[in-house]
Amino acid sequence: MRNPFRDEGAAFRLVFLTIGAFGLIAIGSWISTWLGAAVAIVLAAAGVLVVWTGRRERPDRLRPRSPDRHRILVVANETVEGEELLAEIRRVTAARSAEVYVVSPALNSKLRTWTSDEDGARDAARARLDRSLARLRAEGLVASGAVGDADPVLAVEDALREFGADEIVVSTHPEGRSHWLERGVVEVVRDRFVVPVTHVVVDLERQAGAG
């Protein structure tokens, strides 16, 4: 079964920290009920502080930006081939030296994720990504990319460590059809990272009808 945390190391650290915290609370409570309560409050406050201070990715933890090219990080899964997204990329790269990095999170069902059955999702994401990159390169753009983590926020975080972006373009389905919008992914990315974020809505149903 796939570990639901970011990685196994993070899961083990959380387990050990949790055991340690309960141990300290138990020892404090054994000495005094009030001491146990005080230890619990202090540990809870420390946990909240860690979460709060870690919400935004610090600039010194991101890959430095390039002074010679405007670099755009594009985050899209099923909409990566959408006409609206391509139009936005054309707009932000017009009349300037630019480089595009496309990260396509691998879509998967919760059941397949928990059973570590991710090959099909990654293969589908890779196929969409390759077609998108081929089209961008055919238009003369410097473009590269990778299949990212199924969690789009984690996919952005991973990409920013490798690609010093000047801006992020997040592409989604329209409201009502987008799981990312339901989860507030665009707002989370804007809040967490120090890079400007543009949201593009891609209507694949309309695009298919027009074709």
Topology, element by element:
Elements: H1 8-31, H2 33-53, E1 70-75, H3 83-93, E2 98-105, H4 110-114, H5 119-138, E3 142-148, H6 152-162, E4 167-172, H7 179-182, H8 185-192, E5 197-201, H9 204-210
Structural description of this entry:
- This protein is an alpha/beta fold and about 210 residues long.
- It folds into two domains: about 10-55; about 60-210, Rossmann fold (3-Layer(aba) Sandwich), CATH 3.40.50.620.
- The chain has helices at about 10-30, 35-55, 85-95, 110-115, 120-140, 150-160, 180, 185-190, 205-210; strands at about 70-75, 100-105, 140-150, 165-170, 195-200.
- It has a five-stranded parallel sheet, with helices on both faces.
- Helix 1 runs antiparallel to helix 2 (about 35-55).
- The protein is elongated.
- The two termini are about 40 Å apart.
- Mean pLDDT is about 80; it is low at about 1-10, about 50-60 and about 110-115.
